[in-house]
Amino acid sequence: MKRFLLTVTMLLVVLGWVQVANAARIKDIAGIVGVRDNLLVGYGLVVGLMGTGDDLKNGFGRETVANMLSRQGLSVKDRIAQIKSKNVASVMVTANLPPFVKTGSRIDCTVSSIGDATSLQGGTLIMTPLRAPDGEIYAVCQGSVSIGGYSAQGAAATMTKNVTNVGTVPNGALVEREVPFKLGEDGKITLDLYNPDFTTAKEMAARINVAMEGKVRAHARDSGTVDVYVARDHLSHLTSIVAELENIDVPISNRAVVVLNEKTGTVVMGESVRISTVAVAHGNLSISVKESYSVSQPMPFAPKPPAGSGAVTDKKGGVIVAPGGQTVVTKDTQLSVQEEKRQLLLVPQGVTIQDVVQALNAIGVSPRDLISILQAIKAAGALQAELRII
To answer: Domain range holding 276?
Structure first.
């Protein structure tokens, strides 16, 4: 009896481990609608470059410098054509505004040259307002630019490491405005699946209802959306509710997909890929063309051929006899065709991904040949998976 109970306990432990191994947390497969980053962009100037900035003849750079100096109280509109400095670069500044970030927080921003500047090394970004798609300013960026590389050149040599006309300003953007968002408005939290699937959405709603019974009620609206309704008694603890919600394990069920990359010869198969019984024969055909030239050089002081005499050639143009001291060049072409002799191989029906891999490996082909075989098996209707060529 004790042995029986021990066996049952071990079996339950193994089954529980398998269940967890095939599951993923909600936070890894879905996100809360409205909780996302917001994109910011702005146009600015990087100054303090060592002659590696824009050529101000391009027009917009010169206008930008003139406008910047004008805001500082120095009018150069009538002398704009005389500005020839190459220590300034026109740049686009981008940043991601995280959700729930507060006014006064700092975020990183990326600086990218839009002119002909060769390097932003040692430059400083002047205060640049960053706007969202609604046109409002949400952050202001300013600071030293870090490019993570270098560029040096001389009269006849140049050495560059990494990209020198793109850099970052770590913690250079100061948040000036918060993005308005109210979590759990009307007691509802909407989960958006990264990879929509009806089975996964149904399992997610069921697991939430079991794990958080009495606190929330979940309902799968469609293949990519699960609505979670928070009980009225727990509306004041939304942070704790979300923290508990996103750590629930949910079994994943995705479509069977085979990804093929013809450029690199990469083949990736999903867990659900299945194959029906099919016979496969694959043989490579290789054609080799090799050309060589032979030169017949006359001996020293050989007499010249008499006037009007010519070399005797064969039907293919090759020289057989060359009278006198004439230099002769002959061309030799060797053509060979080789075809592999492969027998027809029966690939049995695969129930698991391991069976499929073992059957395809038994054919003994390279990954690039495997791409052609999988495409042919799919065309025959024996591959129960979607082929994605990237």
So the answer is: 257-284+341-389
- Is 245 within 8 Å of 204 (Cβ atoms)? no
pLDDT, residue 266, reads: 84
Looking at the domain assignment, is residue 23 inside a domain? Answer: no
Instruction: Tell whether 171 and 53 lie within a shared domain.
Output: yes
What torsion, rounded to 10 degrees, do the Cα atoms 135, 137, 142, 147 define? -40
Report CA dihedral (121, 124, 129, 130) to the nearest 10 degrees: 30
pTM: 0.66
| Residue 124 in domain | yes
The per-residue b/e assignment along 136-158, b for 16 or more CB within 10 angstroms, e otherwise, is eebbbbbbebebeeebeeeeeee
54 or 362, higher pLDDT? 54
Q: Is residue 1 part of a domain?
A: no
Alpha carbon 188 to its chain centroid, in Å, reads: 35
Please state, as a whole number, how many other Cβ atoms lie within 10 Å of the Cβ of residue 245.
24
Given 251, 268, 298, which residue is the final one in a domain? 251
